[in-house]
């Protein structure tokens, strides 16, 4: 894992390749100068009939999990974080038979699709929550993942957050989502398999080597602690894309310690606040990449969070060619975020 350590110039065009997925990213700084090159955040007001607000529990499905005040009953007020089955799920509960057709394979989309309601109060921006509330969200993520892992019904769980219309949110009240699937999503599957091959041939974890190199270079680091690194990846697909990784490889987020969860939550909030203060990025997605439940530590895979500010959309080139155009080099993005 070596790279040219020179910092690109502000006008230089360059193609970088993602080391795991292989997709090309064309860095084209002049594109940032286009009129309306940055999307303006879309204001979303929270309606009075907000189904996610406290005292409106009757408007939602019955909760699967809740971080609650003592002596309060399920599906009543008195909660801090509440996890409920999605009323409009992507996945269905019953299992189906595998159906083979010529050149095609299909199966029933079975699984578990839930909503994590992140506050009992009508808040639209997760950055406005207290540090304690933000920690409760991450602890709830881990708690629900543990339960699903112990059930041994699904192969993998993805947790993701869409904030703002540009990021795909249909409900402005702060929330994230969980999808447990019978298959491993291709993005994670590719990362795990790459990590396994790297571990086999190099005798060390790819993710540990990645962090070591990023720390040595320093030009893409946003935040650094004794246990975590937050950085803008070398082949960022999107402007101001940020990844959050623990320094010690651990494949499963649900096995993270209290200290690790606390620090990850703190760094995630700090990163989101920096994105908001520096470039006004209030609309974003973040996604947890955690290993399939059947995977063990021998693969060298490491759970991590990926953050994608929604500053511009993807268009024909990205949709049709599997390549990306990014107007902002990650080195400049990191420098901007560090300066906040």
UniProtKB/TrEMBL annotation:
InterPro entries: ADP-glucose_phosphorylase, GalP_UDPtransf1, GalP_Utransf_C, GalP_Utransf_N, HIT-like_sf. Coiled coil: none annotated. Its cofactor is Zn(2+). It holds the Pfam family GalP_UDP_tr_C. It comes from the Bacteria. Residues 194-311 form the Galactose-1-phosphate uridyl transferase C-terminal domain. Residues 12-185 form the Galactose-1-phosphate uridyl transferase N-terminal domain. NCBIfam families: galT_1. Belongs to the galactose-1-phosphate uridylyltransferase type 1 family. This is Galactose-1-phosphate uridylyltransferase.
């Amino acid at each position: 894992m070596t790279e040219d350590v020179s910092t690109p110039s502000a006008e230089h065009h360059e193609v970088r390749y993602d080391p795991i997925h292989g997709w090309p990213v064309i860095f084209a700084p002049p594109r940032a100068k286009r009129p309306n090159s940055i999307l303006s955040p879309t204001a979303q007001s929270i309606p009075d009939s907000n189904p996610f607000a406290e005292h409106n529990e009757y408007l939602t499905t019955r909760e699967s999990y809740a971080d609650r005040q003592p002596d309060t009953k399920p599906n009543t007020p008195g909660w801090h974080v509440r996890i409920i089955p999605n009323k409009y799920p992507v996945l269905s509960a019953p299992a189906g038979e595998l159906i083979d057709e010529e050149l095609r394979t299909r199966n029933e989309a079975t699984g578990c699709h839930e909503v994590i309601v992140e506050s009992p109060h009508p808040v639209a921006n997760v950055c406005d929550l207290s540090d304690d509330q933000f920690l409760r969200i991450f602890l709830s993520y881990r708690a629900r993942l543990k339960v699903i892992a112990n059930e041994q019904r699904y192969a993998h769980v993805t947790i993701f957050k869409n904030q703002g219309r540009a990021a795909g949110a249909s409900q402005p009240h702060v929330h994230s989502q969980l999808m447990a699937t019978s298959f491993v999503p291709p993005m994670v599957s590719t990362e795990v398999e790459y990590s396994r091959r790297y571990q086999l041939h190099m005798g060390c974890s790819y993710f540990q080597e990645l962090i070591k190199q990023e720390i040595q270079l320093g030009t893409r680091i946003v935040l650094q602690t004794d246990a975590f690194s937050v950085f803008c990846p070398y082949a960022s697909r999107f402007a101001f894309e940020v990844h959050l990784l623990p320094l010690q490889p651990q494949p499963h987020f649900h096995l993270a310690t209290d200290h690790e969860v606390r620090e990850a939550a703190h760094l995630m909030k700090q990163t989101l606040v920096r994105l908001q203060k520096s470039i006004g990025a209030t609309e974003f997605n973040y996604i947890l990449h955690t290993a399939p439940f059947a995977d063990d530590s021998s693969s060298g895979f490491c759970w991590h969070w990926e953050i994608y500010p929604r500053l511009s959309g993807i268009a024909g080139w990205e949709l049709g060619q599997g390549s990306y155009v990014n107007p902002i080099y990650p080195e400049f993005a990191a420098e901007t975020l560090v300066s906040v």
